[in-house]
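To make this tangible, we now present a fold written out as tokens:
***
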Amino acid sequence: MFVRTASERDLETIKALLAETWHATYDTIYGVERVNETTAEWHSVASLKARLTRPNSEFLVADDGKLIAGMAFAAATSDPKVVMLHQLYVRPGKQGGGIGRMLIQEVEQCFPEARRLRLEVEAANDQAIRFYLANGFVRVGETANCGAEQSGIPALIFEKKLG
């Protein structure tokens, strides 16, 4: 497995990865219908394509040459010392094998000036919270609108000190 920059040819596969992962993670929390709505909006090819050209960002995939097993998207914030990890997803059947850790390490290397890596995570997503805690993140707050303004999805905010 290696980590590389995502390209336009990867977008359909990434869209499918996100749908699979979201259903496995969030169907029991939000219900299938809401997960379908959210993934249709947030994970459309057009939405993913816009991330490819976003300034001061990195869109990464974990690839073994046959399967894209994970993805991450991170971008600098208005504070150049803080990077927001907007997305980190690993296919359910590939979780626990170090892919998420590889993606985080690559994100950290992509932003050498950053001093903190921040993310938002659904409070009921115990598996993700355990993963982030095991990878050096600590809880620093919460938000009522995870992922997008007015999303209505509450989340916990975690940060990891860098450098």
